[in-house]
Structures are given as structure tokens and as C-alpha cells.
Specification:
Length: 569
Amino acid sequence: MAAKTSEWRPGPTVCRCCLSEGCYKDISTEYFWMGKREVYSEMLSDTFDLSISYSKSGGPNSASRLICEPCIGRLRDAAEFKRQVQECEKTFVQCLDPVTALADMQVTLELEKEVKVEMVKEEKMRLSDDDDYGAHDYGDDDDDYDDLDDQPLTKLASKIPKKEDVDVLDLLDNAKVTEKRKSSTKVKGQPSKKSKCKQTAGSSKQQKPEPKKKKATKPVSNIRESRRNAELVLQYSTAYPFRVRAKDMICVYCHEEFAEPNMYRDHMDEEHKTFTVYTAFAHCHRGQEFLKVDITGLKCRICSTPFENLQDIAAHIRDTHGFSEINTDIEIRMHPYRLNSEKWGCALCNEKCASLIKLCRHTASHYHKYTCHVCGRMYLTNQALKYHTRCSHSGKNVCRKCWTDFPTLELKKEHVKISKSCWQFCCITCGERFASWEKKQDHLTEVHGREKKVYGCRDCDQTFSSRKPFYKHYILVHSDKSYICPYCDFKFISKREMENHKIGHTGEKPFRCEVCSKMFPREKDLKQHLWIHSKMKRFVCAICEKQFAQKVSLKGHMKSHHHQDTFKI
């Protein structure tokens, strides 16, 4: 890679390994990938004996301690190759001199036990002082859909990860068998001792010890098999992997953004004719997430045979080209998309969606396997279900960022308003946090000069300045998901809005106050009324400090008692 001298600008989002911009993973943070712990600074030190320095004097590059996904993939390959060479060297030495290797191995095991005990003590001490745990956020905000998977899973790093299973017992048994063979060879040269041994064995009624059974190898899990299926299909087919951020498709290899699918496919054909399969899966943390692939024009890379879906091309690669590792009885860990410039349509059920983000959410719904037993909502992974249960059904008022429990919902809402570190939306350029997605977009436009987003409808060419009116327009005009009032045929985007509207036709008042028995047509009206009976008075007069339960009461008080003063309430 050519050094970037004149084109490179120092900044907080620069990769420390290749100077590319737009990175989001910290080089010294603990991550988990495919069940293994990863700290990239440690991997650089162990593999290449390289150390990453940090600036203590401030400046534009003081916070630049990030690493990009392509460099992470290369680092993984290098670390794996080093481990492979070391394992092969151990096996080779043990075959040459098993007795010496056995003694060395016993010493190594004793040292590892001591080191492990010390590591556990240090880990317990660290956990007693460390309260800053990360959280895997499964939010429902449209334009931050895929960015939520990029947060470090530091919570899972509280335990020391297990090392890979090494057949140490098998190596010890092999060494013992070798020693027995040498001793038996010496015994054959001394027949008197041999007969004596036979008499001793005959006199004792002890049975021979049964040979030690070797530990059975664990079967490959379904997740690993489905991941292997996806890797082989990606390598030998024209399924184009991509990620999603806001309205754009992002290349998984070079992180370039594209607004149109045709431009993205041309980029993949021209720039990534050769690629590393593991790099495409780098953002799929711990092997749980599915890889998004565009199967428009899907064909085999070996024989150019076209196919309509991933299952058919997987069977073709296995049967025709001899890749027996593919197991068609296990799912392929990919989400298929057929993307075009006219409409966003599902490749599985042909349903139309308003945007690429909505299409991603709809496609993922075809693969939901984990159901909440309380509310019936379904999720793609077990981690997402656990997060939903902890946030929604724990019976506590917990902040989703710092996991602080509050006695009342009002105190939790007040905490979220004033605690900037718990705000959900973050600018990847300067690190500023925001309470809403709209404020983040305003910040990007005003501070960083990003062009203001415009939402265009692909069905009728109308444009909207914000996303909420655009989605409402698409549901009411171009989809069958709207709710129609049975009395006046008026359309609504949600069932709740339709029910609230229908009450105006029926005059029903199904909500009753338990204190004064007053009836209300809507639930929100009852909640507003309950503040009258509450001891907590939210609204205070700035002049006489009299307290009121409702804002309308405060306004009436200002007009009747302080009409000579003008205040904005």
C-alpha cells in the first residue's frame, strides 16, 4: 500500500494501520469475533512485535486509535498463520523426540496453571473497579440500522475466554505408549525377568486396566456449518455482499458508499474481482449476524451458470464442482436481496418497501426464530431477544445505555434528558452525542457541511424534507399496510390512530378513572387526567411559585393573576 503523505489529513477516525478514514473500532478495546476474544493492539504486538503509541499532548490526531475492517481481516489471517506454524512445529518436535517433548509439555502446563490463576485474580480486581460496560443496542431507528452492530461488546469481555482445545492428553498418551514400547524391547532381551513378571501377574488377581478412551471430537455446530456454507457460496458465486448506512450501500471491502445498486455492482465487478472472504464477514460479530448479499444476476464464478436463489447455486457448487463441505440441510447464513434503481422489493415475497432500511428490516423478519413469550415479538438472534427482555419486561425502569435502575419512569426520562453520555445517537466524525436522530442530522449539516438529506418516493417522484412525512405518504398511498376507518374510509398509518379516530364516530368512553370514576374516550386523556390526583405537581409558577398538576391550569393561573406580565410557558 502506498504511503499517504499529501492526501492524508490527521483526524480522530483514521486507521492506525493504513491511514484510511471512517473507522469505528478502537485498537485497544476488547471485542469478540467467532467466539474468540480480540484486542487488536495485543494481536499486533504478539504477531509482529509492533506497539501503537498514543498522543498525550492533544491535537487533531490525539484521539486516533482506531483500525479499519480490512486491516482487521489481514491481522486475523497473520495471527492465525503464526498460530498454525507454532502448532505444526510442536507436533513435529514431539514426533522427533516424544520423551523430551513430554517433559517440556508438563512444565508448560504447570506454568500455564500459575499464569491462569494470576489472570483470574487480576480480572476479579479489574471487575470490582470497572463499571463502564458496553451494551449491544438493538434500536428501532431507521437510518442507524446497521451502525448498531458496530459497538464493541465490552460487556462480554468480563470473563476470560477459553482457549482452543488442544489434544494434550492424546500427545501424553502417545508419549507413554512410546516409552512402553522401548521398555518392552528391553524386556525381550532378558527372558528370566520376563518369566518372573508373568508369574507375578498370574499370582495377583488384578485385572488389566482398560485403555483410556480418547475424547470424542465435538460435532460442528449449525451456526458454524451455515457460516461455512455462506463462505463457500460467496467465494464461488456472484453474490455481492454489502452493508447499509442511512440510504447508502457500503462496500464490505473498501467501505465506499453508493446510492444506487447498479453503481455498487459495477464497483464490485471492477474493483473486487479478487477478495478475501473473511473480510466480508468481519462486521458479523461472533458469527451471529447474517450477511446481506445482492443476488441480482446471480451466477457461478467457475462455469457462469445462472441461478435464481442461493440454495440452488449452493447445491450446484457442491454437486458439480465437488465442494462437499457445503451442507444443503443447513441454512446459508445470508440474506438475499434483488436491488434495482426503481423500487425496493423483497427477494423472498415481492413485497414493496419505502426505503432500503425498511427493506432490510422486512427481509430480516423472514429469518426471525426467537420469540418473546411475553409480547410475542420475534428477533433474529438470541442476543437481541435477551436485550429486548431486559429492557421491556424486567419490571424495572432501566436506562439502556448505563443500565441504571430508577424507582419511577419519570426519573428515568429526566436522567435520559440530562445525561449526554446516555444519548443514543453519535456523530462518527467528532464524537458528539444527540438525543434524537433529527438533531444529529442537523449537526452534520451545520457543523460538518454534509448535504441535507432529501427523501424521494420512487413510485411517484415526490420529495420530502424529512423522513416521517415520507414514510407516512408511502404507507397511505403506495402500500396495503394502512388502516381504514369503517365509517368514513379515512386512512391511518397505525391501528391506534384509527381506533382513536373511530371513537369520534361511536362516542365510546371505555377508559375509567379509578379515583373519581370519570370516563374518557382515549387512554392518553385518562393519563393526562390522572395528574390531577397525583401528589407530584410538574408545573410551577415562576412568580409566586404555586404548583399545578397540568399545564393548562398554569396558563389559566397566569392569565388571571399575572396578566400584566408576559411569560412564555
